[in-house]
Structure formats: structure tokens, C-alpha cells
Amino acid sequence: MTPLFQELILLCLAAFAAGFIDAIVGGGGLLQTPATLLILPHYPVATIFGTVKIPSLAGTSIAAFKYAKQIRLNYKVLIACVIAAFCASLMGAYSVSKLNNDLIKPIILVVLILVAAYTYFNKQFGIHQQKEHSPAKQVFLAGLFGLIIGFYDGLIGPGTGSFLILVFIAVLGFDFVGASAHAKIVNMATNLAALIYFTSTGHVLFQYAIPMAIFNIIGSYFGAKLALLKGNKFVRIFFLIVIFGTILRFAYDVLK
């Protein structure tokens, strides 16, 4: 078995698991990106980020399509968030080589710990829609947080889906399944924007990215199907598991 084939097997397994997780609660990049960095250590970080954007975009697109067929979408909120996130993701991708990501990770770690605690102790979080915003305010908040999270996705990436779900629940008042559906479409936009930049600068390894995309799609299909079948309670539990894993990952990066 050649080294290339061994790398492909490991990368495709990671992509399948990432697609499955990402379709349910986001955060698949927390598995896929570190795994790719570990399996392909001899490539620049920007090249790894560019490569994993293709399977991420492919899997997220499949999940978004499946959700969109069964979930009623708020198009005004969605469009505002998509446009803002797309533009910000382009800026974030451009900034990858300009900023020190290690400065951002401790802040994200603290936020994640607070989110995990709030979600665990607030049993109604993500079960019922609780926010009473005017349509205009809802659109404004969607655009604002689209800018913030879109920039993060272009700059760092992993965990973007989970952060988007958090915003749609905690800020905009969606339930877990509705938040997942909207987050997938926004995440498509951020992945596409970053991919446009990375491709234009030659930071994509297509020999790895295409097979990974196929397996990410398969994982995403089954993940979205399971989330729609099981409903909010299941997604809430899965969300807590992924958030806990995210905390461990960021804690390792910060404390090592």
C-alpha cells in the first residue's frame, strides 16, 4: 500500500465522520482540519485550510439541501446572514497569513465553556423559540453575526457550524433543527468564499480534496437524515457532545 493511498484512506474516514457530525450540529471541521494537519504535516497551513474547504462545502451543501426540503426557512434573515458571512469569509481567508491565530483561541475557549454550561443547565435552550425581535432587528442581528462568524470561518474555520447554530438559537430564537437548517446554508456561503480565495492562490490539493468530498457528502447525508428523524432533543444532546469536544480541542491548542 503506497503512502498516498494510506493518506487517502485516513483522510476519507475523517471526512465521513466530519460530514456526519457537521450535518447534525456543525463542528465537523474540528475533526477534519486537525486530522488533515496531522496526516499531511509537510504542507503549509494555508494549503490544508484550502484543501478541507472542498469536502466541507460538498457535505454542507448536501445537508443544506436535505434540510431545505423539510424545514421552513426565514429567507430575509438567511439572505442577510449569507451575504455578510460570504464577504467576511473572503476577508478572513485573506488574513490567514497576516494574523496570529493563537491570540484568538483563548477567547474562543472561554466562550465555548460558557456556551456549554448555559446549554446544559438551560433545558429549554433550543427547544422552543424564545426571542421576540422585530423583522428588521432580526435581519440586522443576522447580518452582524454573519460578519463575525464569516470572518472567523475564513481565518480559522473549525467550529463555524456550531457557532452559527448558537447564534440562530440564542440570538435569533430558532429551535435546534431550524437553527441547523439555516446554519448549513450560511456555512455553504462561508466555505465557498474561502474556497474561492484559496483556489485562486493555489492552496488546494485536489488529489486529496475530491475523494474527501465524496466521503463528506455520504456522512453529511446520513447525519442530516438522523437529525430530522430524531428531532430537537437528540440534536441538543449531540450539540453538547460536540461543544465538549470543541472545548477539549481548543484547550489543548491553548495550553500546549
From TrEMBL:
The chain crosses the membrane at residues 47-65, 77-97, 103-121, 139-157, 163-183, 195-222, 234-252. The keyword DNA repair does not apply. One of its GO terms (cellular component) is plasma membrane. It is found in: Cell membrane. Keywords: Cell membrane, Membrane, Transmembrane, Transmembrane helix, Transport. Its main location: membrane. It holds the Pfam family TauE. The keyword Transmembrane helix applies. It is a multi-pass membrane protein. PANTHER family: MEMBRANE TRANSPORTER PROTEIN YFCA-RELATED, TRANSMEMBRANE PROTEIN YFCA. Belongs to the 4-toluene sulfonate uptake permease (TSUP) (TC 2.A.102) family. This is Probable membrane transporter protein. The lineage of its organism: Bacteria, Pseudomonadati, Bacteroidota, Sphingobacteriia, Sphingobacteriales.
